[in-house]
Amino acid sequence: FLGQIDNIGRQNINDINCKFTVKPVKKLSAQTQYHWFDLANTGDVLYTVTGAPFGKPNTGKHVGEELDFVATYTFNPNFNVQAGYLYFWYGPMVENNSPRANAAQFYLQTTFSY
User: Fold this and answer.
1) Distance CA 9, CA 97 (A)
2) Whole-prediction pTM value?
3) What is the per-residue pLDDT across 71-83, written as a single tens digit (0 to 9) for each?
């Protein structure tokens, strides 16, 4: 909903995003998503995924941006493999409160249904 890296809580946040999906062959789908996160109210703070407040009011509006790449290969209706790479750039609001390195994550998962 707010990016796959799951860095942002669902309070006091605006998420402008777009998604592009292609299916070049029957068994393969690829998707990319881009998210631009801003505080809805700069007089409030950012909230983490656990609901904890982060930062101080009036220390910036732009929280950051996220880019997700996900590919899924479906071997049959009961088994697929998915790989994803997720990257989050922290914006001035986060940097003004607690500077940190950008976040990156790679994952590989399988789904087996019976």
Assistant:
1) 17
2) 0.90
3) 999 999 999 999 9
